[in-house]
Amino acid sequence: MDERRRERVARARLYVVAGAREDLPAFLDAILGAGVDVVQLREKDAEAGDLVRWSVAFREAADRHGALFIVNDRPDVALEVGADGVHLGQNDLTAAAARRILGPDAIVGLSCHRAEDYERAPDGADYLTAGPVFATPTKPGRPGVGLELVRHAADRVERPWFAIGGIDATNVSGVVAAGARRIAVVRAVTEAPDPETAVEALLRALPAQDGE
Prior knowledge:
- The model has no long low-confidence stretch (mean pLDDT 95).
- Helix 2 (24-33) packs parallel to helix 3 (48-65) and helix 3 (48-65) packs across helix 4 (75-81).
- The protein has 212 residues and is of the alpha/beta class.
- Helix content is 42%, strand content 16%.
- The chain has an eight-stranded parallel barrel with strand order 1-2-3-4-5-6-7-8, surrounded by six helices.
């Protein structure tokens, strides 16, 4: 089993979720060069062929910068494009099924929205999330859970986890104060006028991981 990927997840601080865009290669180089540790391709309604095509830019950029590349929802696509792993929601394919498709070395992430989600999280999930902390249009119909879930995860969850949902430079300090050491963001970087500067600002607000 290749533990290097898991070690990299444990050391990660900033995870950016992004979709297709016209400037995709330049965007990815900018944010990864600024210090993003993990990038995820997320296009909920896209067909597999388009995901495969967009994945080329993600894989190449991640390799150039020594980052991890994760595909949202689709372990079949992750396998096809040589991604480092897949991220699953509570109602997606199980972590065990994803592991059977991708093998023992792949990273499997799982979204968690409630305290009981952590209690039920399978051993096969390498990292978890906590959120959405704040309401966000990327999760329509799902209210923000607030900082209490972040505090719960900080107190109870031993495997790596990322706070997610509406986090940006204006509120990240409160998320860190609640116990988060890692965050995942979407709009705070993808919609920023200067994504590289946005990444740098978020990283300044995050605590260093052990060994840094």
